[in-house]
């Protein structure tokens, strides 16, 4: 595919945020918003005590400005939740709160329980032990997420050195394996490259390799394909969903694109202006969106010409039951390349 080409210039195209709604629709949505944070809690999910992540009443403020407003959602081990909303709705801040990486000046209240333990209020030292190990993140901009001065192999192996105590040599060997696993061509050579020598799609594959190195229980992917060339977005999405499926990793997938999230997530949480305005199983939300804002997102998705992950759900997925893509994707080599890992597809 085009991302296998030799070093390419850094892609500068970053699709603009979705078009803002007409003011009338927006204010109608705001007026209908007072559902006290449409929380998808453990109770709503059937009260399973096995919840991997339980976010309750999470509020994030910058000074007096509330940017995340009493939101709640839960995610079971191996589950997939799509967090969707327009630009500025508070999705990234929510993700950063879970990781304990909120920017200076932000204050979070409420509760973020992971694996039964409260994360809010923990020291950065404690959180850094969890980050990159039990919870990992794939960022929107692979280039800024990578260290420009380190060869990619060192970056892929770093979490294993940090969290698993691997020697430099063992981490380097693991990095080659991981590079192969994420479908990077000529992994032995590629691990010696620097980020600027890779294409955008290859860099995001490196980001995915880093995130999955320690087999985290939870992966947060924040618009992982938005900054990529359209031609490789579907492949990267398919890779991500296949790998989390194989590893049993829970996925919190953040996007502004309803069509994409519908193909990835079993449950949706729709965010707007810092609040959750709608939550529920993907199928239900797509079939009978109650909130005007969700309906507007649906209408916008119908107008897009997104083509779906390779061999995966087609654009017309919106409005029909969400397809669980992992099963069939799992058996498929990435980009048609032979699988280099020993792990069998499920
Ligand atoms: N460092 C910051 N200082 C002040 N406000 C911020 C900062 N980062 C984000 N915000 C505000 O928080 C809100 C939510 O931002 P964000 O979570 O990045 O939105 P999304 O990811 O949904 O596009 C926005 O209104 C944004 O302006
Ligand atoms: Mg964001």
UniProtKB/TrEMBL annotation:
It comes from the Bacteria. Residues 334-346 have a biased composition (Basic and acidic residues). Residues 1-51, 304-346 are annotated as: Disordered. Its main location: membrane. It is a peripheral membrane protein. InterPro entries: AAA+_ATPase, ABC_Ni/Peptide_Import, ABC_transporter-like_ATP-bd, ABC_transporter-like_CS, P-loop_NTPase. CDD domains: ABC_NikE_OppD_transporters. Pfam families: ABC_tran. It is found in: Cell membrane. Residues 22-39 have a biased composition (Low complexity). Keywords: ATP-binding, Cell membrane, Membrane, Nucleotide-binding, Transport. One of its GO terms (molecular function) is ATP hydrolysis activity. GO terms for cellular component: plasma membrane. The keyword Nucleotide-binding applies. Residues 53-298 form the ABC transporter domain. Residues 1-21 have a biased composition (Pro residues). The keyword Transmembrane does not apply. Belongs to the ABC transporter superfamily. This is Nickel-transporting ATPase. It comes from Candidatus Protofrankia datiscae. The lineage of its organism: Bacteria, Bacillati, Actinomycetota, Actinomycetes, Frankiales.
């Amino acid at each position: 595919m085009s991302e296998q080409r030799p070093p390419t210039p850094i892609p500068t195209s970053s699709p603009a945020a979705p078009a803002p709604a007409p003011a009338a629709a927006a204010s109608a949505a705001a007026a209908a918003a007072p559902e006290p944070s449409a929380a998808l809690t453990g109770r709503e999910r059937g009260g399973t005590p096995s919840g991997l992540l339980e976010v309750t009443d999470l509020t994030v403020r910058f000074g007096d400005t509330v940017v995340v407003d009493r939101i709640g959602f839960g995610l079971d081990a191996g589950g997939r939740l799509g967090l969707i909303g327009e630009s500025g709705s508070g999705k990234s801040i929510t993700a950063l709160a879970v990781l304990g990486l909120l920017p200076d000046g932000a204050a979070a209240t409420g509760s973020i329980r992971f694996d039964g333990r409260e994360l809010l209020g923990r020291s950065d030292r404690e959180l850094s032990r969890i980050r990159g190990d039990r919870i990992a993140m794939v960022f929107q901009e692979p280039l800024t997420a990578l260290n420009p001065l380190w060869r990619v192999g060192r970056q892929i192996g770093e979490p294993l050195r940090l969290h698993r105590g691997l020697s430099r040599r063992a981490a380097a060997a693991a990095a080659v394996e991981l590079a192969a696993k994420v479908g990077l061509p000529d992994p032995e050579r590629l691990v010696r490259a620097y980020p600027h020598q890779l294409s955008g799609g290859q860099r995001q594959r490196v980001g995915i390799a880093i995130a999955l190195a320690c087999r985290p229980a939870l992966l947060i992917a924040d618009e992982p394909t938005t900054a990529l060339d359209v031609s490789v977005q579907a492949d990267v999405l398919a890779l991500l969903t296949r790998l989390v499926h194989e590893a049993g990793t829970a996925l919190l997938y953040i996007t502004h694109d309803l069509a994409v999230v519908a193909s990835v997530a079993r449950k949706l949480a729709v965010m707007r202006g810092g609040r959750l305005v709608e939550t529920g199983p993907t199928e239900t939300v797509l079939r009978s969106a109650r909130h005007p804002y969700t309906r507007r997102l649906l209408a916008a998705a119908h107008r897009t010409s997104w083509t779906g992950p390779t061999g995966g759900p087609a654009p017309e997925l919106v409005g029909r039951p969400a397809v669980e893509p992992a099963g069939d994707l799992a058996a498929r080599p990435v980009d048609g390349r032979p699988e280099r890992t020993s792990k069998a597809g499920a």
